[in-house]
Amino acid sequence: MSGRVGDLSPKQEDGLKEFRKNVADVLEAHHDDHFLLKWLRARHWNLKKAEEMLRASLKYKKQMNVVELCKTWKDPEIIDKYFVGGISGFDKEGSPVWCEPFGSLDAKGIIYSTKTSDLIKNKIVVSENMETLMEEQSKKLGRKVDSVVVVFDLEHVNWHHVWKPFVDVYGQILSLFEANYPEALKKCFVTRAPRLFAVGYNMMKHFLCEDTRNKVVVLGNNFESELLKYIDADQLPAHFGGTLRDPDGNPRYTTKIRYGGKIPESYYLKDKDLNTDAMQTATVGRGSTHDLEYTVEVPGSVISWEFLSEGSDIGFGIFRSNGCKNGLVTVLPSTRYKSNIVIEDGEIIVDDPGIYVVRFDNSYSWVKSKKIKYAIQVLLPDKEVEAQIQECTKMEECT
Questions:
Q1: Nearest-angstrom CA–CA distance, 213 and 285
Q2: How far apart are CA 302 and CA 210, in angstroms?
Q3: Which of 43, 55, 174, 244 is the most exposed place for a label (fewest CB within 10 A)?
């Protein structure tokens, strides 16, 4: 049995009745069986856990004054202009289709230029408006519509999307959605998924429950035919294989879908502190190098880095040990960076397991030592997602 209205087993019927009785003190007139069953399904019919989840959500929404927030909230200019996403239409069963060009989001810029609280409020309002839209659809179609199809596009995605400060904030948003809008996701199609997504997904997946993870479908670049199985062409932007376009012919359908873009530094908050004190520190002596060793065990892992130097530039490169004494194979050639002016960052996917040496190079300077701050990470891919991406790549090569 699906656990939905009209498709309940006798045991589920009894569980629903008991659940309604247990939470009767907090229910409102519009909290029907459809509403209650979402919480029960989200907690696999564990009545105690479902009650805890529901009560926590209602308390949170009261604290956030969600009803008033939805009436008065206006996105700050930075979110309105540079955040991503929008509703393009409805799938073949009447569920809203939310297109999110995630890869076009300036992940680092959005962290530097917005308050986390504003991003959370935006997500709450978007989610509440989506609930209202689904109620309207339910009345229009004469049947319950209570979930959303997401097209999660990764065109232009880069390492900034797996940058820890961004992952932490985006994780908060995902956790908020999971805790307060259970069973709201019908299907999430990940389009144009590069190898980097396997790493990003591995970092994000612990914010998602297992049921949500099972609704994620990873697609490569040839995704149009799969989307059109679920969504009619006139409900999907041409950029995603549909027929919707802007009046000027733009296939991205930007009249409805926000595509973000590079955020000018003039928007950056002057008091935004990403706490570089959390970085590790070292002094690279004059005429010398500072080597850091990292063991990579899983092919497809990502080595990411951020660093800054005080007073002057510093060389930076990555090498792999070839097993011989002092034998190093160049992975990323050593280059001098003006990291005293701006924080340098980047990432590289490595396919060969082994010991990697991250080198800060000051061998060219015989006068002064350099103080550096750095954060180096080895990020592992999700094996299942990476296999799906590889399969998509093989299919694309054969067509």
A1: 48
A2: 25
A3: 55
Report pLDDT digits (tens) over 281-334: 999 999 999 999 999 999 999 999 999 999 899 999 999 998 776 689 999 999
Question: CA 216, CA 104: separation in Å to the nearest integer?
Answer: 20
Q: Which amino acid is at 181?
A: Y
Residue 357 host element (H or E): strand 354-361
How much is the pTM? 0.86
pLDDT of residue 271: 60
- pLDDT at residue 189 greater than cutoff 70: yes
CA-based nearest residue to 282, from 321, 320, 327, 316? 316
Q: Determine the Cα–Cα distance for residues 218 and 231; give it in Å rounded to an integer.
A: 17
Q: Which are the contacts of 185, defined by CB distance < 8 A and separation ≥ 6?
A: 147, 148, 150, 212, 215
Mean pLDDT over each residue of the chain, to the nearest integer: 93
What's the rounded Cα separation, in Å, for the pair 251 and 248? 9
pLDDT of amino acid 399? 64
Tokens (6 digits) for 122: 């935006």
- Amino acid identity, residue 208? L
Residue 14 CB coordination number (10 Å): 11
Contact 239, 251 (CB under 8 A): yes
Distance CA 42, CA 105 (A): 30
- The burial class, CB within 10 Å (0-12 / 13-18 / 19+), for 28 is exposed
Amino acid at residue number 179: A
**Residue 67 CA: distances (Å) to CA of 52, 61, 71, 260:** 22, 8, 7, 28
> Where does the pLDDT of residue 111 fall: very low under 50, low under 70, confident under 90, or very high at 90 and above?
very high
- Which residues, at least 6 apart from 84, have a Cβ–Cβ distance to it below 8 Å? 100, 101, 102, 104, 105, 257, 258, 259, 260
Calculated CA dihedral for residues 249, 250, 251, 255, nearest 10 degrees? -110
- Sort 107 into a burial class: Cβ within 10 Å, 0-12 / 13-18 / 19+: buried
